Amino acid sequence: MNEKMFNELIASIEEGGAILRGEIKPSRQFHIDSVDVKRIRENYKLTQVEFARMLGISKKTLQNWEQGRRQPVGPARVLLLVAENYPDAVLNTVKELACV
């Protein structure tokens, strides 16, 4: 590593520390909206058991999401967003899987 890159790295680390200590504001922030799992399920007109089975998750996991104790992350969050925006695609896919 050359000296210029090393100095940039040190400056970046110092800036990160200042942000964590609240001395300066970050140059950008990311906000991820939460997923309204209960609303998505209700739009499908399914019970918790039916919706959990459709998604391939436990009823307890679904309840934790709906009651705000946990938030879906990663692939589960993406699946819920697909389920919200493209309900027919999810229903058709699940229907095909049930026939196999």
What does this protein structure show overall?
This protein is mainly alpha-helical. It has 2 domains: 1-30; 37-99, lambda repressor-like DNA-binding domains (434 Repressor (Amino-terminal Domain), Orthogonal Bundle), CATH 1.10.260. 67% of the residues lie in helices and 0% in strands. The protein has helices at 3-20, 37-44, 48-55, 59-66, 74-85, 87-99. The longest helix has 18 residues, at 3-20. The mean pLDDT is 92.
Write the layout of secondary structure elements.
Blueprint: H1 3-20, H2 37-44, H3 48-55, H4 59-66, H5 74-85, H6 87-99
Number of helices, counting only DSSP H or I runs of 4 residues or more = 6
Q: What is the CATH homologous superfamily assignment of the largest domain?
A: lambda repressor-like DNA-binding domains
CATH topology of the largest domain: 434 Repressor (Amino-terminal Domain)
Q: What count of structural domains? A: 2
* Termini gap: 56 Å
Average pLDDT taken over every residue = 92
- As a percent range, the share of helical residues equals 55-70%
What is the 3D form? elongated
Proportion of residues in extended strands: under 5%
Secondary structure class reads mainly alpha
Which runs of at least 5 residues are low in confidence (pLDDT < 50)?
A: none
Radius of gyration: 21 Å
What oligomeric state best describes the polypeptide chains here?
Answer: single chain
Return the CATH class of the largest domain.
Mainly Alpha
Largest sheet: none
* Count of extended strands: 0
User: What's the order of the H and E elements?
Assistant: HHHHHH
Level-2 CATH architecture of the largest domain: Orthogonal Bundle
